[in-house]
Every structure is written in structure tokens, then in C-alpha cells.
Amino acid sequence: MNHTQGPRTHRLRTAIVGTGAIARHSHLPALQELAAEGELDLVAAVDIDEDSVRQFCADGKIPNAYSDLEQMLQEQQPDLVTICTPPTLHRDQSIAALKAGAWVWCEKPPCPSLADYDAIQAAETDGGPYAAIVFQQRFSSSADHVRALISSGTLGRPLVAHCQTTWYRSRDYFAVPWRGKWETEGGGTTMGHGIHQTDLLLDLLGPWSEMQAMAGRLVHDIETEDVSTALVRFNNGALATVVNSALSPDQASGIRIDCERATVELRHLYGYSTDDWRITPARDISDDTSAWNAFPPDVPSSHRAQLRGLVDSIRAGRRPLSSGVDGRKSLEFVTALYKSAFTGEAVHADDIAAGDPFYTALHGNTAGWAPASPSAEL
């Protein structure tokens, strides 16, 4: 490849890998918007389903359709590759793109294990290219405002927090052959659904120190879990509950943080705007708190908001948010939740490293959770 490291000032040559629903409904509109602004050109799409990729390219006015990733990388030499394939493909596809000189924007879940994530990070180069994970929930003007209020100490110390992703998924949803399996989906509702709110919670509260968790298959006949809960202690002393569910008819996503001087609460479902936040001062606060609810002009959480920051990072040749250590923290949290839930033991931050069975598989080869081997089925 002829790519050079460091800043890129031209319109970024961009390719999409995987042409399913997340590519069509989230990535493509975001990329098209930045293309209209002169930031990038959509040059190619890749999918093993040739009919799907041809139709995707026709609908999106993308000039080149491929069924082979390596061929596309060699012929198109993209600056940015967005990966919208199942999690088990993320490691090899991200590494291939990085080695070809392309920056990577990869859908969540990042990949099925910390070992896979670390392998991707090892393929990065100082100054770029880097691989970032899609964690769009923390990219919004309102989250920036709340983050600044908490980190500055304006609201006092965070004390108690609650993070919920309580969604509903039917039996038909899990009837799709690749769903509910460790090998193809990478995890259950904790990984596939809850990781977005978890990432936002970690972004607002900072590092955690200790976790005790539980998980279950309460309804669906699947390998992975359909519900999980965790009690978490953060480094700043705050105690939090985290609840993930695929069993909740009244669906909701949300975060509540009780600080010494105010409660901060976000309630939404799949995305939010400024109107979804509420900051309630403590009853005995006598000073003017109007600035707490004086949110800046609304930039809702979205793929577009994160993509704009990523493009800025590519142009500056700097590591983007949601990559490297910053992108790893949510996967580490999810891995720790699984380990605590499946072993019944408390897990501390940084406990899981090479040699730990949960480092290479989220089920940790735990009896009753790990998929049965072919020999065990005989």
C-alpha cells in the first residue's frame, strides 16, 4: 500500500465491509452526510453475498462492489474502512484493514474476547492507522455537558448509580441461527445490547475497581444469557447497579447518577437528545443551579457525531476516542461481568490477563455456559 502515516488532508477514501441492517441504516447515512460535506468519498462496499453488496452499492451510489476484502483493500486503497459484520469477523477484518494502511471504525460488539482486541491493537501503528469501536452513545453535546459537570465536581461526589438496558427480544429474534451462540454472536444481552449504556456509564464515572455479578437464561433456549445484573464499586467510591435484559416488555435504556448535590438522569431507548436528560438539585441547595440544565445546542447521540470526531482524528494523525485503552475498557467490563457471574466470585479491574480462560473466551470455558464440544455430545 502507498498510504503514509500521519495526517491526511484529502477527501478520505472510505469503504464499508458488511451490507446488512446496521450498515444500511446507521453507517451509510452517516458516511453519506460527511461525503456531502466534502470530507470523504464512498469508494467501495464488501459482502460475501454478491447480490446484497450489488444492491447496497446501487442504492448508496457506491461505485465498486466486492465479495473479497483483500481484493478491495489492494485495488481501492481506502483511508477508512467501516466494519459492519458479525463480531467473530472483526479481529481478522480489522487487522487486514490496518495492515493495508486503513483506519478502522468497527461496530460493536468490538470482538469476542480481550485477546482478539489486543491483537487488533497490536496491528496499529503510532500516528495511525488506528481502530476505533462504534460506541455512539457517549458522542453527544448533552453527554459532554454532563461529563463536564461531574468531572469538575460541580455536582459533588458521585455516590450511587444505576445503568439499565432492559429490552425485549422475542423467540423469533433468537430463532435466527447465529443469535444466542458464543461463536457467532460473541455474547448475550450484556455484550450485544447493554455494552452501549455500559460504555456511557464508564465514560461518565471513570474507572471501576470491583464487581459482583449474576447472569441467567430465564426464558430463551440459547447458549448465552438473556439477563444479567452487576454490583460495581468505582474508584471514586460510587456504587452502581448494572442491569441488562432481553426480557423486558416495557423497554428502556437509562443512566441515573446520584451525586452529593444533584441527581443526573437519562431515559431513552436506542438514542437520546438533550430533552432526555434531567438534572435535579438537592433540596437544600441554595445557590443558582440554572447553569446545570443550560445544555449547549443539541447534537444527539449518533453514528454521525462519532464519525465526525473520527475523521478529525484521521486528519490530525492522532488516536481517536473509543480506540486503544479507551475502546478496551467496556469490553473489559463486560468480560469481568461474565467472569463474576459464571464463577460466583468478585472480580477486580485488571484481573483478567493472558492465561485467564476469560481472556480468550467470554464464557471462560465454564461448565453449563461454554458450548458443548462435539465429543461431549456423542
Unreliable runs, pLDDT <50, ≥5 residues? none
Q: What number is the mean pLDDT? A: 95
Tell me the fraction of residues in β-strands, as a range. Answer: 15-25%
Q: In the CATH scheme, what's the topology name of the largest domain?
A: Dihydrodipicolinate Reductase, domain 2
Shape by Cα distribution: globular
Largest sheet, strands/sense/barrel = 8 strands, mixed
Which homologous superfamily in CATH is the superfamily of the largest domain? Dihydrodipicolinate Reductase, domain 2
What report would you give on this structure?
The chain folds into 2 domains: about 10-135, 3-Layer(aba) Sandwich (Rossmann fold), CATH 3.40.50; about 140-275 and about 330-360, Dihydrodipicolinate Reductase, domain 2 (2-Layer Sandwich), CATH 3.30.360. Helix content is about 35%, strand content about 25%. The chain has 13 helices and 14 strands. Strand 11 (about 245-260) and strand 12 (about 260-270) form a beta hairpin. The protein is globular, with a radius of gyration of 21 Å. The model has no long low-confidence stretch (mean pLDDT about 95).
